Amino acid sequence: MKKKIIKFIIGALLILLAIFIYRELFIYKTMDEALSDQINSETKIEAINITEYLENGLERRTKTRIEDDEILSTIQNGFTNMELKKIRSTDIDILDMDYSIEVIASNLVAEKHYSTQSVNIAFNQHDLIIIDGDIKSFEIVSESNHMEVMDNLLNNLELEWVEFE
Question: Is 14 contained in some domain?
């Protein structure tokens, strides 16, 4: 009888371990799913602050704040269909990121009461880090035009970019 109980416990632990490994190694998400706790269909994006970094990731090159709804929508669309694979935070160095975006968003929490919070997203062509109290690291596994969107914003003469020296 004891052997059956021990076998059952070992089997249950192996199943739990397999589920954990599967979730950690093979989970793919869209950008919308990765940000669903902070940004959803009810969320009002108030503004986005964008910072471009130099090669070493420590020094900022330029910065701007965007509040125009049309440009905010363009930025959102550049990331919407992006597929992400969760990876360990130690697999990515934040200093390798080319841009960071601070999304300032308001969510309705009660009638006429909003909660405004920000979420930071640092990224380059291949990797993305979401910082919202926790640090979540992802590899970008689908074709995406997020870098093209950033290039277009940098060349947008209507935006005021502050250069750092």
Answer: no
Token pair of 53, please? 């970094």
- From 156, 66, 74, select the one nearest 102 (Cα to Cα): 66
The length of the chain, given as a count of residues: 165
> What type of residue sits at position 6?
I
Give the residue among 67, 136, 146, 132 at the shortest CA–CA distance from 99.
Answer: 146
pLDDT tens digit string along 51-96?
998 876 667 788 999 999 999 988 988 888 788 988 887 778 888 8
Domain assignment of residue 70, yes or no: yes
Which tokens in the block code for residue 86? Answer: 């969760």
Question: Which residues form the domain of 62?
Answer: 28-163
Cβ-proximal residues to 82 (8 Å cutoff; 6+ apart), any chain: 30, 31, 128, 140, 142, 144, 146
